[in-house]
Amino acid sequence: MSDQVMQEKIKLLQEKLTELKEIKSLMKDIEDDLPMELEDLMIQLKDLKKQVKDRRDEHLKLILEENVDYSEYRERVQLAKEEIAQAKLELFTIASNQTREHGDLDQTVVVDGAPFRLQTQKEVAVYLNGKAIK
């Protein structure tokens, strides 16, 4: 692909992105023009959500203070998350080492009778001015 064709495609892409941004801005302007009754309902909803959050926070605070089992469960959850993170790190390290040695992986491992497929591949992405084009 020649540089001229690439320049034309980038120019077209930039024009279309600018056009899309302008259209979305116009749509948002129309959407933001709300009737008073809808604005009042939105304010009431915001207040109710704050009340619910405050009550939930109070409830959780009481549970923490009064229920010994709950605190123990929280500690166990944290420990389990740390163990999961460590296991993921170890698996990632092994898989990346295997990939470096043998290329991309695609293998099935059976654990407790259940098959798990492990795959690695190099990600291909196109960047324009440091931003990924999706």
Short synopsis of the structure:
The chain is an alpha+beta fold and 134 residues long. 72% of the residues lie in helices and 13% in strands.
Describe the structure.
This protein is an alpha+beta fold and 134 residues long. It contains three helices and four strands; from the N terminus they run αααββββ. β1 and β2 form a beta hairpin. The longest helix has 35 residues.
- How many angstroms does the end-to-end distance come to? 20 Å
Could you tell me the radius of gyration in angstroms?
Answer: 27 Å
Give me the count of strands. Answer: 4
Regarding quaternary structure, how should these chains be classified?
A: single chain
Task: Describe the main β-sheet briefly.
Answer: 2 strands, antiparallel
Strand content: 5-15%
Number of helices: 3
Helix and strand succession?
Answer: HHHEEEE
Main structural class: alpha+beta
List the helices and strands and how they pair.
Blueprint: H1 3-32, H2 36-66, H3 68-102, E1 106-111, E2 114-119, E3 126-128, E4 131-133
Antiparallel strand pairs: 1-2, 3-4
Key phrases:
134 residues; alpha+beta; two-stranded antiparallel sheet; 3 helices; 13% strand; flat
